[in-house]
Design goal:
With 446 residues, the chain is mainly α. The protein is 78% helix and 0% strand. The chain is built from 14 helices and no strands. It starts with a helix and ends in a 14-residue tail after the last helix.
């Protein structure tokens, strides 16, 4: 096995373990904090802080990664994910209702910054371990391993919680398991190795200076080059925000943040209210399976037919899901007459539609950015994370103030329409303008 493939597999397994813990916690924490601490908004406030700081930290994370190296950056960032899982154990201390909330929110702030470092490091690491001939395959391997975290984490939730009602002892047992899984992920990341062609910028340990050069001189030259490149990177990223090609996709990216909040936490909380807490895990398993299915099949279908056609499949999936959620809120929601329990056969198809639509939307965004900004991909993907995390943070914020579920679904539906229209119509407007800058992306060929 080549060193590059070894590193891709090992860091993929590490991320799978870490996000098994984090994504499961994200889907479950609002329910847990409500039942254990009697705090309905704390779970959403925590996630809002994470994604808001994650958004803005993307502009400074390259500086940190250049100083630490990508391997150390991944391990350090993953450690904060583990810390975040661990702070939920403060719910069992005396006077927890006063002590736990500020600790959880502080850990959320730290994780928001660390998450940007983690993902910047990951992108640099997989690039260093791949080349033009295998980058797509290696990225696919990593994506598949990462999405398996949804299946594993929600299976844990489904079988550990079972049919029991959530109390302090059960919640703490579950978070102790998640803490162990996250810590195992950090240890797995420590097993990564420097890329075969690594220099001092890519690994935990620096390479030897060339003969005739002093270490101090080499270090000074490297710091000067890095400082200049970081400054230029930040300037270029900010300039890209207002470019027409980025504006075309920016609304769709913002929508991806809104729907991320909806399927990863808000809808899971709804499932727990409609059926039982155990079924949150079952819903997550279905979402994860649909994500993996969409990632594997829809990309190939898009290459064989049309990316625009596949986008419409994703739009239709989410439109159907939103309609079903809205309808069932009125029929089975907490304010419905009689408040009847929802049959399990209803939320699971909605989960599948949400997962399939999410995989399609993100695949289309990734493909567009890769093809349109092939020579400026780092700036483009930094803005992708910025817009997505910013709107996710805003969405978690209005979820935290208990905005009615109907309005949250309505906001997502409006963003879906706006994102689709701007993404499809935008390139047509660009082609018809008199802008001299060449446009490499067209809807017809895409």
């Amino acid at each position: 096995m080549s060193r590059g493939l070894y590193n891709v597999l090992v860091h993929g397994l590490g991320f799978m373990a870490i996000f098994t813990a984090f994504q499961t916690s994200g889907a479950f924490q609002a329910t847990v904090l409500d039942k254990v601490l009697d705090n309905k908004s704390l779970g959403y406030e925590s996630l809002a802080i994470i994604y808001a700081l994650f958004a803005f930290a993307n502009f400074i994370s390259p500086v940190v990664v250049k100083k630490l190296g990508n391997r150390v950056g991944m391990v350090a960032g993953a450690t904060f994910y583990t810390l975040f899982i661990g702070v939920f154990l403060t719910a069992q201390v005396s006077n927890a209702k006063k002590v736990a909330p500020p600790i959880i929110l502080a850990a959320s702030a730290l994780l928001g910054i660390a998450a940007a470092v983690t993902w910047t490091s990951q992108g640099e690491f997989i690039t260093a371990n791949s080349n033009a001939s295998n980058r797509g395959r290696y990225s696919g391997i990593f994506w598949s391993l990462l999405q398996c975290s949804l299946l594993i984490g929600n299976s844990l939730l489904y079988f550990v919680v079972g049919t029991k009602s959530i109390d302090l002892d059960l919640a703490m047992l579950f978070y102790e398991i998640l803490l162990g899984v996250a810590a195992g992920g950090v240890l797995i990341l420590c097993l990564t190795r420097s890329p075969a062609s690594d220099d001092s910028s890519g690994g935990c340990c620096g390479s030897k200076p060339e003969e005739g050069q002093s270490t101090a001189l080499l270090s000074a030259e490297k710091e000067e080059v890095e400082s200049e490149s970081v400054l230029e990177t930040m300037k270029s990223t900010f300039k890209m925000v207002v470019r027409k090609e980025m504006l075309v996709v920016s609304v769709l990216i913002m929508y991806s943040g809104v729907e991320l909040t909806l399927w990863s936490s808000v809808y899971e909380t709804l499932v727990g209210q409609w059926t039982s807490s155990r079924d949150i895990g079952l819903s997550g398993i279905v979402i994860g399976a649909a994500e993996i299915f969409g990632g594997v099949t829809m990309g190939r279908l898009a290459d064989a037919t049309s990316h625009t056609l596949v986008l419409f499949i994703g739009v239709a999936a989410h439109a159907a899901a939103f309609s079903l959620i809205y309808f069932n809120l009125h029929k089975y929601g907490p304010h419905a007459a009689g408040h009847k329990p929802l049959p399990l056969s209803t939320p699971l198809p909605i989960s599948a539609l949400l997962g399939l639509g999410d995989s399609i939307v993100n695949t289309i965004i990734y493909t567009y950015l890769s093809s349109t900004f092939s020579k400026e991909s780092s700036h483009a993907f930094a803005l992708f994370k910025f817009f997505q995390s910013l709107t996710a943070g805003i969405s978690f914020a209005y979820a935290a103030v208990n905005l009615a579920y109907e309005y949250q679904v309505l906001i997502a539906a409006i963003m879906l329409v706006l994102g689709t229209v701007t993404f499809i119509a935008g390139p047509m407007c660009i082609r018809s303008s008199k802008d001299k800058e060449p446009v490499t992306f067209t809807v017809n060929s895409y």
